[in-house]
Write a structure and sequence with these properties.
209 residues, globular, alpha/beta, Rossmann fold, six-stranded parallel β-sheet
Amino acid sequence: MSQPKILIAFYSRSGVTEALANAIADGARASGAEVRLRRAREVVSAEAMAKAPGWTEQAAALNAKYEAPTEDDAEWADAIIFGTPTRFGSVSSELKAYIDSLGGLWFQGKLNGKAGSVFGSTSTPHGGNESTLISLYNPMAHLGLIIVPLGYADPAMFKSGTPYGASSVSFNQATPPTADDLEVANFQGRRVAFVAKALKAAHITETKS
């Protein structure tokens, strides 16, 4: 049986959420999964971006590294992992715009039964990581994804992260994720790959029966 295919669709401005995305990808690939890393694009004007120092330059650099996520990516995947920085305790508008674009696939039922998971970052210790991750469970349920939380299924979870998904705090300095944060993210990639592979095998078996 072919290995699972995983889409990691994320938004990152300063590179913190990007670092978690890459650690998740490493864990998934270590488990044999094929991974697509995609960065959601800005939805505000160039004028608005210019008011935040460095935003325009950072966006250009990240967009040069990653393609934008598409409907085809979501249909291709056996699992979709969404990543976002916290914006006022909730998902960034950039990632939400991508999720909203999946309405056609939702209507056709093409996302039903795929694995789904989330990760995120925030600037302050109580800046909303958990509320943001939990808020993403709602659209995943509507899309028909089978939600894969982390629980405390790995020793790394007792050092960092949340049971809802990998996370990081940048302390308003774009501080990169810690080694413990990245270990949790790596575990998330392995866990989602395991679940996606099991779901794919079950679907193949059901189709043949």
